[in-house]
Amino acid sequence: MSIPASLATPLKDQLTARFGVAAGTNVEYSIDQRPDVHSVTLPLGGYPRYQIADAGAAMSLGGSWSMAVARLIDAILPPTMLLRIDSDRNGLFALTSYLRFQQEPGIERFCQLIERICHLPTNPAQLTAVTTALGCTGPRGIGLRGSTDGSIRLAVYFKVERDLSSFSADTVGTLLTGCGWDCAGAPAIQADLRAVHVGGSVGVIGVDLDASGAIAALKCDPTNVPLHRVSTFLQQKRAAAERLDVFGRMSRALRARSLSYLGIKYTPQGFAGWRLYFSLRPDGHARLAQPALFIDSPGAATLRMPHY
Question: Where in the chain are the domains?
């Protein structure tokens, strides 16, 4: 993979060896507020069951996560799948498989599927309230995360078509109430979204479920966020100087003008973190022999979460 040397991680050679063409065609590179943590996401095609099993075995995750993903593939026949691989200075520590539904299921059917296939608890009442608050018919996709500590966690993603201008503080408050949280944080969340969002539809909003099935975190993923807005946002959230430096070096190395999307995470206590996503084509033809971010190039495909 011809990812710039400044972005090199322990994943570089392993991705190419294990996923071949997929790792060189479309890659999503992301960082968050944690030092030394890097993530690479790539599309799965062909025989994803084998790729999932191989990745799980390589990380010694045991069979639970791999088997759950394989059963989900058989049950929902996802039109698109992604695999995210997380690493730190000690090596790989988590895999997340993202699967999109062919048609958004109702919450009752969805919860039955997750409990039957993944053997994970859900909270139908909370998920129904969130679905109603967002104006959706059901979840667009899911993310199933397996970690080297043996834990398996589920994230549920909704595609919100409504315009950002109609996504008021009251609407956010209703969403927080649906999560079982205090709605006092609604104005701050709305202000964050308006500060970074370039307009149009709200996009994807996700929720993380805890071990009991209750909603533990809310995640907003505005797309195509201009870098100057990202920089201002990170400074307002008091991002560490080292993280700001990494963000700047990555942006310059990839000649980016926008992020693919900016992940913003909230818990009942308020703002809980961010993640920056850069989509690139490592084997593509870069301008002036330099790596280029294709998000701004008309007609050039870029990697997205499958829930869009």
Answer: 5-296
* 3-class DSSP assignment, residue 30: strand
Residue with tokens 């539809």: 201
Of residues 250, 270, 254, the one with CA closest to residue 182: 270
The DSSP element (H or E) to which 227 belongs, if any, is: helix 227-236
Q: What is the largest CA-CA distance in the chain?
A: 54
Tell me the pTM: 0.87
Which of left, alpha, beta for 190 (phi over 0: left; psi -120 to 50: alpha)?
alpha
Structure tokens, 112: 């039955």
Measured distance CA(293)–CA(251) in Å, rounded:
9
Q: What is the pLDDT of residues 131-156, one digit of tens each?
A: 999 999 999 999 999 998 889 999 99
Distance CA 240, CA 174 (A): 32
| Residues 249-276: b if buried by 16+ CB within 10 A, e if exposed | ebbebbebebbbbbbbbbbeeeeebbbb
Query: 3-state class of 198 per DSSP?
Result: coil
What are the pLDDT digits (tens) for 74-125? 999 999 899 999 988 888 899 999 999 999 999 999 999 999 999 999 999 9
Under 8 Å between Cβ of 223 and 203: yes
Cβ–Cβ < 8 Å for 197, 212: no
Closest residue by Cα to residue 104 from 74, 127, 123: 127
183: number of Cβ within 10 Å = 16
Provide CB contacts within 8 A for 166, sequence distance 6+.
none
Q: From CA 97, how far away is CA 82, in angstroms rounded?
A: 6
Side chain identity at residue 45, one-letter code? G
Q: Give residues with Cβ within 8 angstroms of 301, minimum separation 6.
A: 26, 281, 294
According to DSSP, the residues that pair with 153 across neighbouring strands are: 145
What's the rounded Cα separation, in Å, for the pair 32 and 39? 9
- Nearest Cα to Cα of residue 19 among 53, 42, 49: 42
Beta strand 27-32 pairing with 91-100: unpaired
